[in-house]
Amino acid sequence: MRRLLRPLLILLVAAVALSGCYLPARFDAEIELDRRGYYKLTFSGYMVDTRLYGALKDGKVQGAQEVDEVKKLKADIERDPDASDFGYIKQGYFKIHWHREGDLLKAKSVTFLRRNEHIFGIAYNKETRIVNMLGRSLSKSQKDQIVQAGMNTSGELRVITDTKVVSHNADEVKDFPARGPNTKVYVYRIPNIYRATPQMQISLR
Question: Angle of helix 50-57 relative to helix 2-17, nearest 10 degrees?
């Protein structure tokens, strides 16, 4: 069984490494964007360092080595000033809170966690004045490898906006009068990793 597991974990690491080694496990996330271009991005939940997970499961990291690897993981996360409440759970899993806000027209793009660890974010096109929501996209085979190795993703993403939405694939759209008469919340429910990547285009015209 161990000989079968090892090549699977190597494939897993290779697959996820194409777009970073951190995978959301269970989370609650929110993007808020108003018609002036002011944004707020928030993520709260649990993630897994897929490389550490694979090394632990394959027996390449044990005992004191795990302590050292967790120190490196903590240092990597905490170098981001928008990250807080880091807590290691076990087997490569950790909890984190992340929040950033500002002017998207100036920033042009915002990504959680960072560009080389892209999980979700938004990007503004000055020419079209369209904002695209960006989510990490994995192939079916990559998703299969992740699930077969014992990991998955679940959670909820909400997008709150008072401006025109050109297109989306949200599961539910609701009025949000607490934020204004024209404000709506678009709810994306992610029951597992096979849910289609959340997508949305917002016009700031």
Answer: 170
- Tell me, what DSSP letter sits at residue 198? P
Q: Encode pLDDT of 155-188 as tens digits.
A: 999 999 999 999 999 999 999 998 888 999 999 9
**Residue 3 DSSP class:** H
Q: How many helices (H) and strands (E) does the chain have?
A: 5, 12
The first and second tokens of residue 40, run together, are 């707020």
Instruction: Measure the CA–CA gap between 202 and 106, rounded to whole angstroms.
Output: 17
Q: Which two tokens stand for residue 54?
A: 């694979």
pTM of the model: 0.88
User: Which two structure tokens, joined as six digits, stand for 1?
Assistant: 């069984």
- C-alpha span between 184 and 191 (Å, rounded): 22
| CA separation for the pair 162, 139 (Å, rounded) | 33
The CA distances from residue 101 to 9, 37, 135, 144, in Å, are 36, 11, 18, 34
Residue 64 has pLDDT above 90, yes or no: yes
Give every CB contact of residue 193 below 8 A, 6+ residues apart in sequence. 138, 143, 146, 147, 152, 153
